[in-house]
Amino acid sequence: MIELKNVSKWYGSFQVLTDCSTSINKGEVVVVCGPSGSGKSTLIKTINALEPFQKGEIWVDGVPVHDPKTDLPKLRSRVGMVFQHFELFPHLSVTENLTIAQIKVLGRSAEEAKTRGLKMLDRVGLIAHKDKFPGQLSGGQQQRVAIARALSMDPIVMLFDEPTSALDPEMVGEVLDVMVGLAKEGMTMMVVTHEMGFARKVSNRVIFMDVGGKILEDCSRDDFFGNLDARQPRTKDFLNKIL
Ligand code: ADP
Ligand code: MG
């Protein structure tokens, strides 16, 4: 579903991604972790072309992201993205937040968009809040609306960039529960997170990135957590700090 081949990116002379290669199969859940500044956000954003890169190739469902001829808005409409800050439109109701991109980007009718949006809102357990505005919801609820909004676009893959790290601790669980449900239903997911409980429970693979945008580990969940002796010193160091 996703393939990265030797992706490198620089900001001026600063290399933010160094020869990153990996692939994600349909239905796989891959967790990306690593220290702050190691390029996790940049890496995940290259996949839906929110960040350009100078070297390498990325394929999403057979579509070449690196090819200047690729219709990037169309690609983006098929790749769901959920950020640390929910980025809902504050002046639109929950229902309007769920429908606007379906109507403007996918060309769905208002009625069709509403049916789909409310179905996804129900799925994240928030149908009772459909007429509220984002500011009337808790952080955890807003993030669940953001997930419902992404799902309303019928994405072929979902990218998450630290979706729970801006939340108060008591709200982390409700967002992770939604993500666990998605994973169990077979959604292809790439998740930047330090929630190692989530990684242990549902991920198939774990990627560890280190400063300079290098993929230091790319291994099965069981190897990552169960065979610590085989891990790189930097990985062990990181895990010792957060576990
Ligand atoms: P992470 O998500 O792992 O914390 P990021 O991908 O956000 O890392 O950033 C990786 C590195 O790239 C950091 O050192 C950051 O300061 C740098 N960086 C990010 N965006 C820019 C930018 N627009 N210009 C210059 N440097 C940037
Ligand atoms: Mg980041």
Q: How does this structure look, described?
A:
There is one protein chain. It is built from nine helices and ten strands. The protein is globular. The relative contact order is 0.18. The strands form two sheets. Strands 6-7-8-3-9-10 form a six-stranded mixed sheet, with helices on both faces. A four-stranded antiparallel sheet has the order 2-1-4-5, covered by helices on one side. By secondary structure, the protein is of the alpha/beta class. Residues 11, 16, 36-42 line the site of adenosine-5'-diphosphate (ADP).
Structure characteristics:
6-stranded mixed sheet; alpha/beta; single chain; 243 residues; 10 strands; binds adenosine-5'-diphosphate; binds magnesium ion
pLDDT below 50 for ≥5 consecutive residues: which ranges?
Answer: none
What is the residue-mean pLDDT, rounded to a whole number?
95
Tell me the Rg in angstroms. Answer: 18 Å
Shape: globular
Q: What ligands are attached or bound here?
A: adenosine-5'-diphosphate, magnesium ion
Topology:
Blueprint: E1 2-11, E2 14-24, E3 29-33, H1 40-47, E4 55-60, E5 63-64, H2 72-78, E6 79-82, H3 94-104, H4 110-123, H5 139-152, E7 157-161, H6 169-184, E8 189-192, H7 196-202, E9 205-210, E10 214-220, H8 221-226, H9 233-242
Parallel strand pairs: 3-8, 3-9, 6-7, 7-8
Antiparallel strand pairs: 1-2, 1-4, 4-5, 9-10
Helix pairs in contact: 3-4, 3-5, 4-5, 5-6
Magnesium ion (MG) is lined by residues 40-41, 162.
Question: What's the gist of this structure?
Answer:
This protein is α/β, with parallel strands linked by helices and 243 residues long.
